Amino acid sequence: MSVPTTTTVLGTGLIGTSIALGLAEGGWNIVGWDRDPSHAELGRERGAFVHVAGSLEEAVADADLIVLAAPGSVIPGLLASLDPHDLRPGAVVTDVASVKATVMEAAAHLPAFVGGHPMAGREMSGPEPATGALFKGAAWVLVTAPDLNQQALTRVESMVHQLGAYPFHIGALEHDAAVATISHLPHAIAAALVSSAVERGSAIDLAAGSFRDLTRVALSEPEAWADILRTNRSAVAGSIDDLIRRLQGFKSLLASDDAAAVIERLSVARETRQRLSPPVALVRVALTDKPGELGKVGSALQSSQVDIRDLQLRHQEHGGGGILSLSVRIGEADVLSAALIDAGLEVLS
């Protein structure tokens, strides 16, 4: 199917503006609308939208593809307000809500609706941090249903591919249960861990890599995530109950001092986690707290031409430098280490 003549994005925060920027890069004609006109205008200034509609009715009137990118709790109401008779014949509607069952119910009156959920985001919100590269390499959930309009699905898939993501087909209830565990539960865990560390006095001052990794999502926008957690509260509650049961089991292993069982539990977790990422080798570099250190790293990366898979900087809060961890393909660690040493940096063994 060809590129839609006009695509309208309803909701121009981080996700909506990022979608618009990515599609605009591919030559798509994008119209924006938001209840906060300043958000939409900022997106237009950045090149995301060729036009900002003054009303919802104007925004959808001539659209071939309509993307609902408002907060998840708002989307069902927006869907209910869309009258098929007010839409262009053949217009396709999709959304980005992170909870799908309620959305699918609200969209039942639309003849060409495809439920969607991009598995990508950032801790920041609003149009300012939006980027057209946000979805590259990410899964984009497209909800399967017995009455799914195949032509509509094809059109939404073309949008997903243009954004550099890949379609992942799953039912609404299965999706909601899955994201409760792998996406929503981590936010509850992070909040609990931060609270526990703060209440233990000096514990928060000793926080290092593992604590920072586990609580990164605590930096996310509270209002947005409260909305998501409340919308999917039943599935999230089930995931919390399951986690409590597993933690109680781990507690019992420690109480019985069963070393072999503890090792087995940790080993299974390690092996499973390793399968989520390609094999990598870790190179750790000590950086001093002075200008030019990252420039040396950049020069080493350019000269070594290695494939960086991940990086993480652990920096001292009150100065004094830090440790930069670089993940590269197996077999490239020695090449990178040599280049970093040549650049005048200290590589840790």
Report what the structure shows.
With 349 residues, the protein is of the alpha/beta class. The chain has helices at 14-25, 37-45, 56-61, 75-81, 101-106, 150-162, 172-199, 209-214, 222-231, 233-255, 259-274, 293-304, 333-342; strands at residues 7-10, 30-33, 51-52, 65-68, 92-95, 113-114, 116-118, 139-143, 166-170, 280-287, 308-315, 322-329, 346-348. The strands form three sheets. A six-stranded parallel sheet has the order 3-2-1-4-5-6, sandwiched between helices. Strands 11-12-10-13 form a four-stranded antiparallel sheet, covered by helices on one side. The protein is globular and about 65 Å long. The mean pLDDT is 90.
Features:
3 domains, Rossmann fold, 6-phosphogluconate dehydrogenase C-terminal fold, globular, alpha/beta, Alpha-Beta Plaits, single chain, four-stranded antiparallel sheet, 13 helices, 349 residues
Quick structural summary:
This protein has 349 residues and is an alpha/beta fold. Helix content is 45%, strand content 17%.
Task: Tell me about the largest β-sheet.
Answer: 6 strands, parallel
User: Which word captures the global form?
Assistant: globular
Task: Record the strand order, biggest sheet.
Answer: 3-2-1-4-5-6
Total of DSSP H or I helical runs spanning 4+ residues: 13
